[in-house]
Structures are given as C-alpha cells and as structure tokens.
Amino acid sequence: MTARDQAIEQLLSGLDPEQREAVTADPGPVCILAGAGTGKTRAVTHRIAWRVLRGDMRGQHVTAVTFTARAAGEMRDRLRGLGVAGVNARTFHSAALRQLRYFGMRRFKGQLPELIDSALKFTAIAAARAGLQTSRAKNFDLTTEMEWAASSLIGPDDYVSAIAALGRDAPAAPEDVAKVYAAYIEAKRRAGVMDFADVLAHTADMIGEDESIADQIRSQYRFFVVDEYQDVTPLQQRLLDSWLGDRDDITVVGDASQTIYSFTGATSRNLLDFTRRHKSASLVRLVRDYRSTPQVVGLANQIIGESKGREAKMRLELIGQRPDGPAVTAEVFADEAEEADMIARRCSQLIADGTSASEIAVLYRTNAQSQAYEEALASYGVPTVVTGAARFFDRPEVRQAVVALRSAAKTEVASMPLSEAVPTALEAVGWRPDAAPSGGAQREAYEAVTALANLAQQFLEHHRANPDEDGPDPDLEAFCAELSRRASEQHAPAVEGVTLASLHAAKGLEWDAVFLVGLADGTLPTTFARTDTALEEERRLLYVGITRARERLQLSYGLARNAGGRERRLCRFLAPLGLGGFPRPSAPGATASKPRERKKAKVLDCSGCGKPLTDARDRKLGHCEDCPATMDEGLFERLREWRVSVAKQDGKPAFTVFTDVTLIAIAERCPGSDSELASLHGIGKSKLDKYGPAVLHLVNGGEVSEAIAMCGEGT
C-alpha cells in the first residue's frame, strides 16, 4: 500500500457508513442531507481532504462556502488538522468581496464603491426623497424589507406585485416601499457606495459580463462545497451559478428541517430541487445523532414528525448514538419574572455543581426577552455572553487588550514564555487571572479578556502538538499575528459565560445544558405567524432550539407575562405531547373530568410599601429598592467573611457559594430554621445541606471560625 493509500485509509477510518458514503461519492453533484448533530462538518471537511489526497486538485482549487465567519474559521482549522491547506473557506459575502476587490477596478473604472456597514442612513435619505415620514424604527423595518427584496432578486418595479403574490406583509404601503426602494438604490449610486447585497450582485454581474474574469475565477476554483444549503437566497444561488458556469462539481449540505431564515430571503427550494436540477447527483442521508442524548433526540423527532409542507417531505428521523441522559424537564412559572429568576438560579446551581458556564445556554424567541435573563443572572453573580451583541473583536475591552499585547510584544515582556507573557501584558488593562468580578457587565468584560488568555494557551498547545509543522514554541509576536488573523476572519474564541441567544442566533451552536424559555403560544409561535407556511417555520425554529442541547434540556414558560396578568397557553407544538410539568391536553373523545387546576400567577408585594414587585432582585429581597431595609449589617459582614473563606477552601469563586443578594436576604430575614432558610431565593437543597447549618449558626450569633469549620472537607 502506498503512502497516499495509507493516508486515505486513515482519513476514512473514523467515519460511519453514511459519512463514508458522502465523503467518497464520485466527483460531480452531491447532496448531503445532514440532520442536527450528525457530523456534517466532519463529512464535508473529510470529503475535501479525500478529493485533495486522491490528487483530484490542490486545496487552493477548493471553495467552501459557509454562512458565518465562525463556521468558516472552524472549517479551516479542521482542514489544517487533516493536512489540507489553502482551501478558500469563506462566507458568500467574504468570498465575493475578495473577488470584487481584485477584479472590480476594471468594472468600476478604478473606483470601487465603498462598502457601507449600515444602510439606515441611506434608507432615511431615500424615505425623505420619496416623501415618506419615518422614524428610526420605521427605517430599520424598511431596510430589512429592502434587504429581503434584493436577496430575493425582486427590484423596485416588481416589488408590489411580488409581495401580493406571496401574501407578504409590507412595513408600509407597498407602493411607498417601492418608492423608497428605488430612491435607496439611487442614493447609493450618487454616493458611490454599495451594501452587502450589492457585493453579491456586482460580483455575479462581473463574472457574467467579463469572460476573461470568469475564466480566471473558474480555473482557480474547481470544486465547491456549500454548507447550510437550505438557507441560500436566490441572490446567493445566482452568484454560485456564476462561479460554477457549466460545471457541476459541487457538494451541498443541508437539512430542510432547519430552514428558519425565510425573513432574509433564504429558501429551501434550492436544496429540495437539487436532485431534479442535477439528474446525476448522489444523495446521502446522515441520521446518526452524535450530539444529543436519546431523550433530547426523541423530543426533537416528535416535534418535527408533525411538520407539513415541502420541507416535511425531506425530514430526517434522527437516531441517537449517545448513552441515556436525564429526562427532558418542563415547568410552568407564575410569570416571566419568576421564570427568569428560577432559570438564573438553576444556572448558578449547575455552575456550582461543576458545569462550565460556557456550556449553558438560555434560548428565547425574540431578543427583547434577553434583558430579564441578563438581570436575573447578574443578580446571582453568573457571567453571561449575549449572542448577537457586538462582535468579539469589536468589543472595547478586547480592543484594549489586543493593543496591550501588541505593545508588550515590543518590550522585554516579549522574551518571556508565551504562558507568562500574555498574563503579564494583560495586567496593563487591569486583568488578573484570580480577580473575576462577581457579575454583570464587568464580569462579562472580564471573561472576554480571559478568553484571549485561554486562546494563548490553546495556541501554545497546538504548536506543541505539531512540532514538525509549526517549529518551536511561539512567542508573543506570533500570538499577536494569530489574533490579527482571527480578527480579520471574525473567528472569535469561546468566552466563559452563560450564553443568552435567540433561537435564530443559536443555529449552528450547541451546549451541554439548554434552557428553552418563554414557550407560550403567541411568543412561540409568534403572533405574526399567520399562515401555515409561517407556522411551520416556527415549528422548525423550536426543533432547532431543542437540538442545541447535548445532555440537559429544560422547557418552560410563564403562565402570565407580568404578575397578576392574563394567563397564556402553552406553545401549540408542545401542548399535544403531554410533557410532565406542562398542562396535559384533553384526549379526543375522553370522558369529561374536572379540569386540572392551573397555577395562579403569584404576586409578591413589597414588605414596605405594599406595591407589587416585578424586578428580580426586589423579589428576592421582598421589598423595593427605595423601601428601608431591615438588614443586620453585622450579620451581613460575618456572612461575607465566612463566604470568602469557604469559597477559598473549596477552590471556587465566592458567588458560587451564595450571591450578595442571597446574603442580604439572609441578613434581612434572619431565618431560624432550615425551612425558613430554604424559602429564600438562591438556596436550593444541595446548598441547604452543605451550608445550612453554618448559616444558621451565624444567624444565631455563632463565630465565623466555627461556621467555616462546619463547612470543612468531609462535612
């Protein structure tokens, strides 16, 4: 066996039968239907490596298109690990912009239009020229609508008839939107700028109209891989067609059951019609789920098994490959404030029990739901990462840290080993590895800088694992170069913190523990989903959320939106399943029985002024922030002293013992028994068993040293 044959055999050795079939399919059109957690990235990277190792082409001849810079970075890293370098793994926009900047000077006579980050300014100008009075919110809606139209290959002249045919709601009178759309295009032309949709359109036009450019691009890129093919827009498909020309060496990967971006113009039609368009295409289905436990997989199959429409014809029934895990849990809370508080409390407990904060996620339908969870988690001292906020390398604290690292690379710090140089350099921005703030925005900023420090260690370990490839240990200058590469590709490191994300933003991610919250009908599915097609997309959105969980999954909703408010129903996709903890549906034809008593929304009133409490922190303490507290200051200080010592002997952050808010509640209520202590927020059974005797000892006037001894090892 030749060395090449050995390398190929080693490449294929760890694949399951379906993955191996996908990897070794003959050159030409290949469609891989890959369910959630079935190893699609593994399959496509191995297919690229297989084609290169066979000698079909070099890595430089491959273009792999992804939908996020993070996914592109992960694909490049995996390919490097397989010994394949030079693959052009990029997003559609990044790949197109690169070509436009290289070839576009000819097309634009030496002056390439400037790319704008935000179209809002030009939308406002266009609306004014069209005679339409708008606000910032209205301009945002108009911008989103014009982006959808451009991605759907619908121009201003066709807009009115197109949305009428689709039954689509417009953000203003359709005729007015069309006028703004036309004025927007003109405003960009006059200013000499382009938006992201223009980048794709200009590149497709350039290739289609200039044969010499088309020949150069097609001779360079001979094999195409497209990830998340169910999310390709008509405009992206047009660009892909221009890249391919009359060739058909393309592998697409997708899952019709994860089609959730129709509001951007994405359509699963390209995936559904692939084998019709390419008669000789190979079709492979990946259904073995390596991500989630059978309990999670089973619920996902139940949800998507009831789907309807074209996408349902290509749905996959997943087969869980992992050992059994905990049951999926379901719970109804009195209202949204209680739901946020209790979820934050459980996140805190998971972290205290050893789960990394970065392996926990709270997922919701709309970004507006984020704030309640940010506040609740901060009150428990739990760090958070809000997906969809500022990009990692654009964050002020990250920019300052990178500047500090680059500055240190020009000093004597650069002569230190990398593991020492990075922490030393980061002291300039006030970061120390053992000085994490208790929670909130400061903790989030601290964890972002910590991610850079952790990345340095990973960078060092990678080089040590590949000494022949990468040479001796890298220095601080080499690490700064790695940061520059990652920043240019928006390949962010993992940040330690509980992830808060909308279901749309969670696509492509996964965690050990997932809390799916706000599952009330009207929120999921949203009230804006009025058609069968829209409702089916909401079902798929829930499916995507469920399949993000590896081990633990909790579903929940607040019976009322606010304390004492109108009761709501459970999400209609979950209601028929009869999950324990959720209201059970009546079976068709069943004998009428006494309806289950529904949980009443619990109203907590301030112990001082008597007003209802809605803020999570106030509800924990039992009174408004403005009302006088009855806290025993001496007890509070003794509790804090005890907490610091106990946390130190346990080797974990102080907030994981009890948060400041919980200590305040103890010092205000002065509980006299286990039951009174357990009634306070932040004290569950495990903490009651471990710390309860010591806390009650302190409440009763005991010495701090004695309370510390009560929490010693072996107790």
UniProtKB/TrEMBL annotation:
**Pfam families, per the entry:** HRDC (PF00570), UvrD-helicase (PF00580), UvrD_C (PF13361)
UvrD-like helicase C-terminal domain: from which residue to which, for each copy?
Answer: 294-551
Name the InterPro entries on file.
DExx_box_DNA_helicase_dom_sf (IPR013986), DNA_helicase_UvrD-like_C (IPR014017), DNA_helicase_UvrD/REP (IPR000212), HRDC-like_sf (IPR010997), HRDC_dom (IPR002121), HRDC_dom_sf (IPR044876), P-loop_NTPase (IPR027417), UvrD-like_ATP-bd (IPR014016)
Single GO molecular function: helicase activity
> What does the UniProt keyword field contain?
ATP-binding, Helicase, Hydrolase, Isomerase, Nucleotide-binding
- On whether Calcium is a keyword of this UniProt record, the answer is no
Q: What family does the Swiss-Prot or TrEMBL record give for this protein?
A: Belongs to the helicase family. UvrD subfamily.
Q: Could you identify this protein by its name?
A: DNA 3'-5' helicase
Report the source organism: Glycomyces rhizosphaerae
